[in-house]
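Late entry, 4-fluoro-L-phenylalanine complex.
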Amino acid sequence: MENERGSWSSNIGFLLAAIGSAVGLGNIWGFPYKMGANGGFAFLLVYVIMAIMVGFVIMVSEIAIGRKTGKGIIEAYREYSKGSTWIGYLGLIIPVIIMFFYSVLGAYCIEYIAVNLCNLGFNTVSASGADLFTAMLTNPVGSIVYTFIFLAGCYAIVKSGISGGIEKFNKVGMPALFVMLMVVIIRSVTLPGATEGLKFMFVPNFTYLGENFIKVLSVASGQMFFSLSLAMGIMVTFGSYLSKKESIVQNAGIIAFSDTLVAILAGVAVLPAAFALGGEDAAMSGPKLLFITLQDVFGAMGSVVGPLFGVCFYTLVLIAAITSAISLTEVAATAYEDNCNKKGKTPHRTRATFIVCLIIFAGGAIVAADGLGSNGLWVPFQKTFGINGWNDCWLDFFDFISEGVLMPFVALVTSILVGWIKKPSSIFEEVETEGNKFTGYGLFKFCIKFFVPVATIFILIGQIDTFFQLGIF
Ligand code: PFF
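Prediction complete; structure with ligand written out below:
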């Protein structure tokens, strides 16, 4: 991306940036554990339906709004429809909240790389995944230091602009991650007892869904917004640099498909192994799943090959995390710069990035010190307000605010804006410029006007209901 208004040098540049932003910890860490805890196959089904009928529709709208206006998030909404600038501002808060916990998860990846490196050279750490993870969670200082290192890396990349290094990074890192996932999948599904995990993922079973429909719907949908990097201006911004020649529908299809594929592959890498190594309870163990199960899979690979795979795998996950994290940091840093411009002050990219990273570090330090609830930092909150949250921890709280409430809410207001105020034809015109065809426009129209608003209202109520344990459904 250039500072001057231009366009991507090629469509591939756009796709790589968008896929780089979409594919991240949401796919590899979030998807498998949420699928494990929410009924397996039925969760997958709901996820895919929501990705097509809500995610894809919002993505097409966001890219089209970006390309139509040629502006970043705030100005794009201002120009698309007077009076909707506040949606842009709202979208800006989300990346900062996400980064509060994303940076900590990135930090855990760095710690795992370090541990596997130690094992590779000196075989010093022979603990199980569970012991290792507990030791890490209960060491707040270590987690804060690694969070700092992760953010320092993001700072260094974002302050000097995202072109060049990071694009090259993506070009090699993403295919490498894909290959590595395949290798891990082969190991995972050939472990004795792994077939139970595969059945859980792919054999239709709707008992859980029947009893928890709204919960599954809201968890799968929140995850989908998060994973596709929607409802927070990323796709608007990327779309603003897209050439009019390119097909928005095709591009959105490729991004949504690749992202979903990586999430399912991560599920196949993690869940069968979890069943093989610890049974169904292990598969349902929540946010700790990735860090425990896969470390055990590597542990079962022998003392040289195991750590070697561990180092490669967590490095690739870290790359995926960084490419997503920089797009999150970039949104906030760009907004800060825009604000300076508007006030007539000279924008200092370095300073802007520094301030954003500092704010993120303040929130990240709380999540890191809490250690997924292991160190009890959530307890006072729980006692004062009687809120248990999903897993009694700060990570869940920030996850709830961002993907649980703000993302579905921004999607809801976007659908009202596009479907009812500006009308779907405003998107149709943009998609069909320069001879492109809007395949499936009828479905798009139905979804943006009716399906997305209704679904997002249920998602919002469902998220609030499960987080506060209100028992509405
Ligand atoms: N999509 C990323 C993931 O799945 O890890 C996270 C993310 C990046 C969310 C960028 C939102 C975003 F704008």
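The radius of gyration is 21 Å. Will revisit in the morning.
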